[in-house]
Amino acid sequence: MELLTKQKNVKAVGVEIDEKAVHDTVEKGLSVFHGDIDSGLSDYRDKSFDYVILNQSIQQVSHVEKVLEDALRVGKKVIIGVPNFAYYKSRFQLGVLGRTPITSNLPYQWYETPNVRSLTLSDFTGLCKKHGVKVLKKIFIGENKRVPFLPNLFAETGIFLISR
Fold first, then answer.
1. Residues 63-102: tens digit of each pLDDT
2. Are 52 and 133 contained in the same domain?
3. Within 13 Å, how many C-alpha atoms sit on residue 49's CB side?
4. Cα gap 28→86, rounded to integer Å
5. What's the pLDDT tens digit per position in 9-56?
6. What are phi and psi of 138, to 5 degrees?
7. CA–CA separation, 30 vs 129, rounded Å?
8. Burial code of 122-150, b = ≥16 C-beta within 10 A, e = fewer?
9. Number of structural domains, the chain?
10. Closest by CA position to 13, among listed 38, 31, 37, 40
11. Which ranges in 11-162 belong to alpha helices (H)?
12. How far apart are CA 40 and CA 20, in angstroms?
């Protein structure tokens, strides 16, 4: 949000549940609403934003479908970045080593992770299809470069531009 406001002159408002993060954000001169996206975005009118960005957060909410619907309601378009739990290094750690995966994109021990859901790029695409959400663009990233081939295996992250 800081980069977007300073480098692209974007007018942005964040939603943050963590009180310390809210304080830190305000100290940077950024606008933030102290709230929980899981509780909904009822304070915002329909299509009140050009874009809603949910980066590395959809796997941390309890009510994924509600959060997705709210984001699509208040934003004309939504950008969602999701970790890929089917990334080949994660598969190896789980399948061969028998351990909960730790990668650069999933850096937490199982007992300290903020993630309440494990999803793959295919899972997210399937959710969009189920709810009639249009995927306008998708980019897959693995080890700091774009992944053009077999993204569900080789990408650590997927970034999706979606709309109704």
1. 999 999 999 999 999 999 999 999 999 999 999 999 999 9
2. yes
3. 21
4. 36
5. 888 888 888 889 888 889 988 888 888 888 878 888 999 999 999 999
6. -145, 140
7. 35
8. ebbbebbeeeebeeeebebbbeeeebeee
9. 2
10. 31
11. 19-27, 64-74, 88-95, 121-130, 151-154
12. 21
**Mean pLDDT over the full length of the chain:** 92
Nearby residues of 131 by Cβ (< 8 Å), 6 or more positions away: 65, 68, 69
Dist. CA 87–CA 49, nearest whole Å = 32
- 3-class DSSP state of 88: helix
In which band, very low, low, confident or very high, does the pLDDT at 135 lie, cut at 50, 70 and 90?
A: very high
Question: Cβ contacts of residue 16 below 8 Å, gap of 6+?
Answer: 22, 25, 32, 33, 34, 35
Domain with 9 in it: 1-35
What's the sign of the alpha-carbon dihedral 66, 136, 46, 43? positive
| Any domain includes 41 | no
77 pairs with which residues across the strands? 51
Looking at the fold, whether 77 and 26 belong to one and the same domain comes out as no
Q: State whether 65 and 6 are in the same domain.
A: no
